[in-house]
Design brief:
With 188 residues, the protein is mostly helical. Helix content is 64%, strand content 0%. It is built from eight helices and no strands. Helix 4 runs parallel beside helix 7 (118-133). The longest helix is centred in the last third of the chain and has 35 residues, at 138-172. The protein is globular and about 50 Å long.
Length: 188
């Protein structure tokens, strides 16, 4: 597949302002280990980059959600937005977190997985509803609070907001997927 040209590239490191360099170094020295994709593009607005990467660090590494729940929500978000870069970045993390490859494939193909774990099911359902209807109905909300509790529900909503920002950045600035391979999310 040929990708449309990227609209906005990361700033040239040779032209970084002092603040851009500080933010770059803070991101690169943290758990992400590098600055690429949407975070690199955000360096055009160093304060957005600084604040977003701090929120992202919390959403990715420090919420009350365990890694499998977080990665499930991230994959579903990437799928709903058709964000190839996000999908490719997090598919391996999802497998490492213990998500079943068949569940991941169902999400990739826009099929609702068969769930045996109520936490995974409610995270999936809340994520899909949030992105598709921009809310959750009373029954789903009650189920989510019962299964996740209030703190994890708040963290889930925060994570969804952050990864919506990520997905919009990827899509609007046409950040290409990783590598030269075929699109994972291409319509079949």
């Amino acid at each position: 597949m040929t990708w449309p040209p990227q609209r906005l590239h990361a700033p040239d490191p040779a032209t970084y302002s002092r603040r851009q360099q500080e933010i770059h170094d803070a991101i690169a020295s943290g758990p992400r280990g590098s600055v690429r994709g949407p975070l690199a593009v955000w360096l055009h607005s160093p304060e957005l980059a600084a604040r977003s990467q701090e929120l992202g660090r919390y959403c990715r590494y420090d919420t009350a959600l365990d890694a499998r729940l977080s990665e499930l929500a991230i994959l579903v978000t990437g799928r709903v937005f058709g964000s190839e870069f996000e999908w490719q970045t997090h598919k391996g993390h999802a497998l490492d977190a213990g998500l079943d490859p068949d569940l991941i494939e169902d999400i990739r193909c826009n099929r609702r997985p068969d769930f045996t774990d109520p936490e995974l099911e409610v995270v999936h359902d809340v994520t899909r509803a949030a992105h598709e209807t921009r809310t959750v109905d009373d029954a789903l909300y009650a189920r989510a609070i019962e299964v996740l509790g209030e703190k994890r529900m708040v963290d889930l909503v925060g994570l969804l907001g952050y990864y919506t920002l990520i997905s919009l950045t990827i899509n609007i600035f046409r950040i290409p997927p990783l590598g030269e391979g075929a699109a994972d999310l291409a319509d079949e």
